[in-house]
Design brief:
The structure is a homodimer of 214-residue chains. Chain A is an alpha/beta fold and 214 residues long. Chain A has one domain: Rossmann fold (3-Layer(aba) Sandwich). Chain A is built from seven helices and ten strands. The model of chain A has no long low-confidence stretch (mean pLDDT 96).
Chain lengths: 214, 214
């Protein structure tokens, strides 16, 4: 089972590594990090560099595609080789997935038209501009299309997907292996429950948070 | 504020990237990935490679040290350059931290003697063999020493630490930015609540899970 994780300049590291840590532990998993220009790909802070050893052409028929988000998503919205690869790969994937603003890339490539999908809470409404149906949920399954909300939600998405692929017991074993028994010290991970002034602060800077640019 | 994250062959990716994603967003944070041999460092599955741009000697006085765990921890237990660096850096750190079996490395370097600490649930009892006091908690603060349980717990640890360093509002803004509102699809992340047969399965293979070797 080949899992292709797309990387691009200024991706958000946890968007990619969360699902990787879960899906990579599935029996028979073979993970490939792919980028339009293989090599070291820098994250949104420019301090973390992940190696992409494959070009999209090297992984024409992955079983699972994972598209992370991050400020660099804004540069992946135009039609071109990455969209071509996503569309071609999607013809034979078992699952086409995204984390955070990765869903905007999938939508821009035309893969979420008319489908229910989610994204980072600050970007979710943009899905509608690209033909998808925005849903305020942390993980959204619509057929083989699975989208997750912001950054850390990729872990939840991947565990749910692992259960669909390999059964509950295997997914639970992976969860116990990574000791995923989350106890955040604050209840501030959702705009519905974070302090109002924090929500306002992030909304005010949303363009910077989402694109790294003002 | 310099944050040095130690990498070594066969580290577990999320152990390093979870805290990175949180602590790297603190105001003034400068993250450096350091390894005894700088370059591309392969994770426990050998499929993910993170770039370590610094040698320990390049970061003699970090404000925060983060030591991840993973199967490669077993090769980091002997005294040598990594332990020398950890001890020297610890003399001036504000916080010396670990995720998963990274606490065993800190303990072997003599930094947790007599201190309360945690680790991956399968490895926690080993802390006692290295002079630490094992505690069954997800995140343990003992003075400036902060240890987290298995893999995913580094996110909780880093958010708690972010709160101590920059205040609750900044930590909450980081949490909301990464939409850390966890909803695992199963309640299997702790040996206290996972199905008994899953716990038994992992215990049976614990040596393999922890070291990658049988």
């Amino acid at each position: 089972m080949q899992i292709a994780i797309l990387l691009f300049d200024r991706f958000t590291a946890l968007d990619a590594v969360g699902p990787y840590q879960v899906l990579g532990r599935l029996p028979g998993a073979e993970v490939v990090f792919a980028a339009e220009q293989p090599g070291l790909i820098g994250d949104d802070a420019g301090r973390l560099h992940l190696s992409a050893e494959a070009a999209p052409a090297d992984v024409p028929h992955p079983d699972i595609v994972v598209v992370p988000g991050g400020p660099g998503q804004a540069d992946q919205m135009d039609d071109g080789p990455v969209h071509d690869w996503l569309r071609a790969a999607d013809e034979t994937t078992a699952w086409t997935t995204s984390v955070c603003t990765g869903s905007l890339i999938l939508a821009a490539a035309g893969l979420l038209t008319g489908r229910r999908a989610t994204s980072h809470w600050l970007a979710r409404s943009e899905l509608g501009q690209h033909g998808a149906v925005p849903v305020t949920e942390r993980v959204v399954f619509d057929g083989k299309y699975v989208t997750a909300a912001g950054v850390s939600s990729g872990i939840d998405m991947a565990l749910a997907l692992a259960g669909r692929i390999a059964g509950d017991a295997t997914a639970q074993a992976i969860q116990l292996g990574i000791e995923y028994d989350p106890h955040p010290p604050y209840d501030a991970g959702s705009p519905d429950r974070a302090p109002a002034e924090i929500v306002t602060r992030l909304k005010t800077h949303s363009r910077f948070i989402l694109t790294g640019r003002v």
